[in-house]
Design brief:
The protein is mainly α. The chain has one domain: Orthogonal Bundle (Ribosomal Protein S7). It contains 4 helices and no strands. α1 packs across α2. The longest helix has 19 residues. It is flat and about 55 Å long. The protein starts with 20 loop residues before the first helix and ends with a helix.
Amino acid sequence: MSRRNISKKRFPKADSIYNSYLVSLLITRILKSGKKTIAKTIVYQAFDIVKKKTNEDPLVIFEKAIRNASPVVEVKARRVVVLLIKYQLK
């Protein structure tokens, strides 16, 4: 058994302007060699462009885009399928 300490998961804090956890995750994904201010300016400029073109809240559009891009998780009942296959084979 290991005597090592198990580290706790650290989540980034919510963004200061939009107060969103997703925006802070996007900023950390854009980071290149630790330049967080550059990553923030890129994200905020992109959100300003979205706001000018759509006249809507860019955070709502961003969350909708994340939902569309993420895969849909479906839970399949495997036991029922296996039982049906066994009974059909007999």
